Model the fold of this input.
Amino acid sequence: MDFLVIGALKSGTTSLFHYLRNHPQIYVPPEKEVPFFSNEKRFAIGWDSYFREFFSEAPADAILGTVTPQYMERPSSFVPQRIFQLMPRIKLIALLRNPIDRAFSHYRMESRFNREPRKFEEAAASDLGKEKLKIYFTAGQYGAMLDQFLDYFPREQLLVHFTDALEETPEKVLDSIMAHLGLATGFRPLNLGKRYHVGGRQRFPVLVPFVKKITPLKRLYRTLPLSSRRVIWGWVTNEGNVKRETAPPLDPAVRLQLRDFYLPDIVRMESLLGKKVPWKEFRSF
Done:
């Protein structure tokens, strides 16, 4: 393995995945999110089995990698140590979004799948400050998570970009990633600039439960290779059954509450990276 895009969740990693998979010298598995180091079942079976399942079709001379934002799900993780023990020279790439907007986008996804019944304002008022937080809050604590990676990996192996740059100047971000991977700059996929997995709500909330009850379809589905099933399921849940909607604005009081929550971590991250974040609500400190 040559590189890992480690995160963050809901920060544009799906778009980056679709750009990278079009590079003639790069191979990533057809399914985007196939975690190994954070998946206990796969990790227990071992790397050789994982590699055979997801990289058996890779060309012999390809640059191999995965886009796995689960590797930056939460602070206090065992993932960086596991990666280092198996791949101490791996190139790491992180893509980071304003943690406030990222949390709200993540919440909307959880709500779409009926995993969070509360309003976002209620969740923030109830959870912030508690020891055990919902993942959509913890997954924005970038400083704590990157600090753990840098406990094992030298700084030059970690490339960090902000989602804002991927959206505004994707050519520059791709050139930077290519240089990080030791490839020639100038790669411009035809889909460059297209955004994937834009948030929304379920178009047909009863579709998936209804389809699951149709026995012939279930049998047909199970005859497909596991990799094909994952691709189909990912498309249905994130594309086909999603009605795209612009996120409503957050209450200014909630944004302020979240800014105060994330600010110490932002300061920590800026110290680690040696650069300021582009998010204006964190730039006045």
Notes: Strands lie at 3-7, 26-27, 63-67, 91-96, 158-162, 200-202, 242-244. Residues 252-273 form the longest helix (22 residues).
